[in-house]
Every structure is written in C-alpha cells, then in structure tokens.
C-alpha cells in the first residue's frame, strides 16, 4: 500500500487564486473508480492505495488544469511505498501520537 502526496499547480493562470482548479481536481479524485482513500490538506492532497491505482488517479488529476485552458501544470509527487508491513494514513498518525503519549508519561 502506498501513501502519496500530490501537489498540482496550474502555471500562468493570470490569478493568484487556484481554488477553482483545486475544487475540480478534488472532484476527479472523489469520483475515482480506483479504491483509493484521500485527504486534502491546505498545501497538497494525500492519497492512499495500490501504487498503480494512485498513479492512475494522479494522472487524471494532472490533466484537470489543462482541460480548463491552462497551458502549463507543475505536479509534484512524493511516494511512501512501504512493503515490509501494511501502512495506512491512520496507522502513521496513530504511531506518532502513541510516541507523543509515551513521551508525556516519562
């Protein structure tokens, strides 16, 4: 299971706001037929699933600004692909919180 962070930035829109593009990209993600989980953050989107599925969804997300008339798109992807044991967004967050709790009780 991979956990992937994707940031898609339309370039040269003539406006400093990109929320119109983010909303359309999130619509593509929310309607994805692939079995992926996702979480939007203020700076990027985190997607969890089988790597091939996640990359297929990101490919479609990358196309959204082009479909809206943008002529240049910059997409950054960070992949955490752990294969020694299952890893999920929730498990990673829980692990950090457990360690914080342990530190508080020392």
Automatic annotation (TrEMBL):
<dbReference type="InterPro" id="IPR051614">
    <property type="entry name" value="UPF0045_domain"/>
</dbReference>
<feature type="domain" description="Thiamine-binding protein">
    <location>
        <begin position="4"/>
        <end position="97"/>
    </location>
</feature>
<feature type="region of interest" description="Disordered">
    <location>
        <begin position="78"/>
        <end position="106"/>
    </location>
</feature>
<feature type="compositionally biased region" description="Basic and acidic residues">
    <location>
        <begin position="79"/>
        <end position="106"/>
    </location>
</feature>
<dbReference type="Pfam" id="PF01910">
    <property type="entry name" value="Thiamine_BP"/>
</dbReference>
<comment type="similarity">
    <text>Belongs to the UPF0045 family.</text>
</comment>
<dbReference type="GO" id="GO:0005829">
    <property type="term" value="C:cytosol"/>
</dbReference>
<dbReference type="InterPro" id="IPR002767">
    <property type="entry name" value="Thiamine_BP"/>
</dbReference>
<protein>
    <submittedName>
        <fullName>MTH1187 family thiamine-binding protein</fullName>
    </submittedName>
</protein>
<dbReference type="InterPro" id="IPR029756">
    <property type="entry name" value="MTH1187/YkoF-like"/>
</dbReference>
């Amino acid at each position: 299971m991979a956990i992937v962070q994707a940031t898609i930035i339309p370039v040269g829109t003539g406006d400093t706001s990109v929320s119109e593009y983010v909303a359309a990209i999130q619509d593509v993600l929310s309607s994805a037929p692939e079995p992926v989980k996702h979480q939007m953050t203020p700076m990027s989107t985190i997607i969890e699933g089988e790597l091939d599925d996640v990359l297929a969804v990101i490919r479609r997300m990358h196309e959204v600004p082009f479909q809206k008339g943008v002529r240049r798109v910059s997409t950054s992807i960070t992949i955490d692909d752990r294969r020694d044991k299952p890893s999920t967004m929730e498990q990673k967050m829980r692990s950090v919180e457990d360690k914080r709790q342990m530190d508080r009780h020392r």
